[in-house]
TrEMBL record:
Belongs to the bacterial solute-binding protein 5 family. The keyword Transport applies. PANTHER family: OLIGOPEPTIDE-BINDING PROTEIN APPA (PTHR30290:SF9), PERIPLASMIC BINDING COMPONENT OF ABC TRANSPORTER (PTHR30290). It holds the Pfam family SBP_bac_5. This is ABC transporter substrate-binding protein. Residues 86-435 form the Solute-binding protein family domain. It comes from Labedella endophytica. The keyword Transport applies.
Length: 527
């Protein structure tokens, strides 16, 4: 079951500044069924990504630029459209129970290397993903160690040792790799081997990644084939780190799609360009809870958040497009997102914050300084993060807290979050499509042990509710448990969802769907 967050139709979207997400639908500029007489087949669709993706393997990594490119080379058993509906893709149909799901694959599936993609290959994918030794992106969330898969002709059966009310949403979303790629995973770092409509044809590291349309493709969602009118012959992902440059290239027509969320969007709006939309948790804060960091103390985390004027910072970080967060799940299909959260963020209370810091041993000296220094990370490439971070610094200074602001680039993020762990908090976003995926970051192993829990969170109440939700008898019960679990994360201040916004990916000369990231089979070039 999928519960819908709110009645608002999101009309703007972003490619990947933070792990973001979409609410309901796209604008007319993103509808590939609109005005088909204007579609022109062939040519090149050029999009911007804000950093080099590096390793392109769909099996590992959480780099946002990388995840944005995964759909261009790989496909899933099912497709989730912008309305959150699950429709056939590699599989033509499925049947599920609480402990198993059986997919019937479409006929004629072939890989980029020309080999046939079979149910046996699909079963091998599930086996690879379910092994903790492989440390894949989906392990522990969509695919668990207690899952097994078998093949019989063109039928794939996945079984779970425990009840799982979301087998379709979880297993149906996993990108399938062809057998040669599973046999040699390292080969996927700089090549693609999936069943996708497009295959990687050229790499200019740090500059551009080119994907070329394959012939003979017949199995796309909504009956898309290689011959569908309006498809481009090539897709080029250009690395453009500067938003002003992206805006210039969009307006001139050198780019067909780019995320621009800062002041330059005014120029793009004035040029009359359309956009598609995703919900962006741009103001979410996470905390480093390792024992050697001050933020390991819940009283410090509570004090830091109580000292913040949420609306003031929210307006800055969203460039005036502030939306209060209503869920930690913010990506289609918005699994278990209700009409409102069980949690409620506290109002600003400087006196209560000061008392908590006193209790934690950070008492103010004669000069007001508490001897507490916080290392605050933010994305140097996100225009609104800098001003909002400075406001956070100023508000914490009222309590005698020293804040070191760190504008991160891709190398800095990787170093601080996953190597040195030299950080306390910051604008660090997650954009999961379900609470199961969210649990990967809060319930799973720490990054030191090969997991994605880079914050080193240990929340026993959350863990117990999550474990119960995994094996709930039905989706309604599971969702109720997940909502309670999410409340535990907020109550313990393991995360602070300060502000959301609707982030635009702007379009020029093309339409598309973007149920999270750009869906290549939905791109249509305009005349």
């Amino acid at each position: 079951m999928t519960r819908t967050v709110r009645g608002v139709v999101v009309t703007t979207t972003a490619i990947a500044t933070a792990l973001t997400l979409s609410a309901c639908g796209t604008s007319t500029g993103g509808d590939p069924s609109a005005d088909p007489t204007d579609f022109v087949s062939g040519g090149t669709f050029t999009m911007a990504i804000n950093e080099d993706p590096g390793n392109l393997s769909p099996l590992t990594g959480v780099n946002l630029a990388q995840r944005a490119l995964v759909p261009f080379g790989y496909e899933s058993l099912a497709y989730i459209n912008p309305e959150g509906e699950t429709v056939p893709w590699m599989a033509e149909s499925w049947e599920e129970t609480g402990t198993s799901i059986t997919y019937t694959l479409k006929d004629g599936l072939t890989c980029a290397d020309g080999t046939e993609f079979t149910a046996e290959t699909a079963a091998a994918n599930i086996a690879y993903q379910s092994s903790p030794d492989n440390g894949t992106f989906w392990f522990g969330s969509n695919i668990t160690e207690d899952m097994t898969a078998t093949a019989d002709g063109n039928v794939l059966t996945i079984e779970s040792a425990t009840n799982n009310p979301f087998l379709l949403q979880s297993t149906g979303a996993v990108e399938m790799v062809c057998q040669a790629g599973l046999d040699d995973p390292d080969s996927l770092a700089d090549s693609t081997n999936g069943t996708a409509l497009y295959a990687l044809s050229n790499i200019e590291a740090g500059s551009a990644y080119t994907y070329t349309k394959r012939d003979g493709y017949t199995w796309g969602p909504e009956d898309v084939t290689s011959d569908t009118e309006g498809l481009p012959d090539e897709i080029v992902a250009r690395v453009v780190a500067d938003e002003a440059t992206s805006a210039n290239l969009l307006i001139s027509g050198e780019l067909n799609a780019a995320s621009v969320i800062g002041a330059d969007r005014e120029r793009i709006e004035a040029a009359g360009l359309d956009s598609v939309g995703i919900l962006n948790p741009i103001g979410q804060m996470l905390f480093n809870e390792r024992e050697d960091r001050p933020t390991s103390d819940i009283r410090v985390r509570q004090a830091l958040t109580l000292a913040l004027d949420q609306e003031s910072i929210g307006e800055l970080v969203t460039d005036g497009s502030y939306l209060p967060s209503v869920s930690l799940v913010n990506k289609i299909p918005l699994t278990c997102v209700s009409d409102g959260p069980l949690w409620e963020l506290p109002e600003r209370d400087l006196d209560a914050a000061a008392d908590l810091l006193d209790e934690a041993g950070y008492e103010a000296g004669a000069d007001g300084d508490r001897g507490l220094s916080i290392r605050f990370l933010y994305d140097g490439g996100t225009p609104t993060h800098g001003a909002a971070a400075e406001e956070v610094q100023a508000e914490w200074a009222e309590l005698g807290i020293t804040t070191e602001l760190v504008a991160e680039d891709p190398t800095g993020w990787s170093t601080d979050l996953y190597q040195t762990y030299d950080w306390d908090t910051g604008f660090i976003q997650l954009a999961p499509s379900s609470p199961v995926v969210l649990s990967l970051f809060f319930l799973g192993e720490t990054s030191e042990n090969g997991g994605y829990n880079f914050m080193a969170v240990e929340n026993p109440e959350y863990n117990a509710l999550a474990e119960e939700a995994f094996t709930a008898p039905d989706a309604d019960t599971a969702c109720d448990l997940w909502l309670e679990a999410e409340k535990e994360l907020i109550d313990r201040v393991d995360t602070f969802p300060l502000a959301d916004t609707e982030s635009p990916t702007w379009l020029n000369g093309a339409t598309l769907e973007m149920p999270g990231s750009i869906a290549p089979t939905t791109i249509r070039m305009l005349g």
